[in-house]
């Protein structure tokens, strides 16, 4: 994240979500090992891209991470979620993109996993690629299906600790509450047993009815030219933490994303695909274990409230960061979205 981007986020406008302290970057990459990268396509009628979240720097297929998901409203076309729900692990990087590029992302992740692990589909099982989506068809020609496997792999290749927010990657053509949406992130730090820990959240914000957005200070922005009367769109929320947790506990944390969305004024309309996923970087699960009984460390349940609070605060702030970092955009068929940042600035 550049210095210019950091000046275009919620806190630079006095919008503080909750009272917990943010991490050093105030992004999901405050969780050690997590990286994010983008590939953006804006030529012609395209306003689209891929965003890649790399959960650790090793071989994710061989070193899986505990994970869980919460389908807040299931109007979506994501891939890989059924196996995450059943087995409670992720074993590839996570790709975010537009609805019609999900298949492309699947193929890219499978080819990448096979290149790293030639035994996949031969002497061991197959691989579960996780790709999640929102529809960017208002600002981008989604029927062009222009994104390629090379684009998806490039997003993974450039993933780093610092990344842009707003009109980038998967967020390039997204809208939120009648304003420009996009990619946003936030984090919170806290102590458990006198040791520091962090929870970070990344969102792909493409949801919300104009006029429903409520800022932390109580103001309700409304874009002047918005005509939408229904709650439509989607939001993808990915949470990471370095706290050792079971998949059941992670699912409980993922559910609290809904509290953050509610604070913003969303009510998860019929046509909205709202999905939250949470994973822990602690307690990796080896694909090739050599003991029959595994021992795991997990958080004592009585201390989980601090993660619930962090989940709600980071979800709320990440969405606002996506909208404030985003520049106004004119896209496919001349459709326009204004920036929330411009609404917040005097004059």
Task: Considering the chains and any ligands shown, give keywords for the structure.
8 helices, ArgJ-like_dom_sf, globular, four-stranded mixed β-sheet, 26% strand, protease, L-amino peptidase D-ALA esterase/amidase, 347 residues, alpha+beta
Give a verbal description of the structure.
The protein is α+β, with helices and mostly antiparallel strands and 347 residues long. 22% of the residues lie in helices and 26% in strands. The strands form 4 sheets. Strands 3, 4, 9, 10, 11, 12 and 13 form a 7-stranded mixed β-sheet that branches. Helix 3 (102-116) packs across helix 4 and helix 6 (257-264) crosses helix 7 (305-325). GO terms for molecular function: aminopeptidase activity.
How would you summarize this macromolecular structure in one to three sentences?
This protein is an alpha+beta fold. It has helices spanning 3-6, 81-87, 102-116, 149-157, 247-255, 257-264, 305-325, 340-344, and strands at residues 35-41, 48-54, 63-74, 89-90, 94-98, 130-134, 175-176, 179-180, 182-192, 195-206, 232-241, 271-280, 285-286, 329-330, 336-337.
Structural class: alpha+beta
Gross geometry: globular
Helix content: 10-25%
- What distance separates the N and C termini? 27 Å
Series of H and E elements = HEEEHEEHEHEEEEEHHEEHEEH
CATH topology: L-amino peptidase D-ALA esterase/amidase
Find the count of extended strands (DSSP E, 2+ residues).
15
Using only C-alpha atoms, the radius of gyration works out to: 19 Å
Beta-strand proportion: 25-35%
What is the element layout, followed by pairings?
Layout: H1 3-6, E1 35-41, E2 48-54, E3 63-74, H2 81-87, E4 89-90, E5 94-98, H3 102-116, E6 130-134, H4 149-157, E7 175-176, E8 179-180, E9 182-192, E10 195-206, E11 232-241, H5 247-255, H6 257-264, E12 271-280, E13 285-286, H7 305-325, E14 329-330, E15 336-337, H8 340-344
Parallel strand pairs: 5-6, 11-12
Antiparallel strand pairs: 1-2, 2-5, 3-4, 3-12, 3-13, 7-8, 9-10, 10-11, 14-15
Helix pairs in contact: 3-4, 6-7
Keywords: Aminopeptidase, Hydrolase, Protease
GO molecular function: aminopeptidase activity
Family: Belongs to the peptidase S58 family.
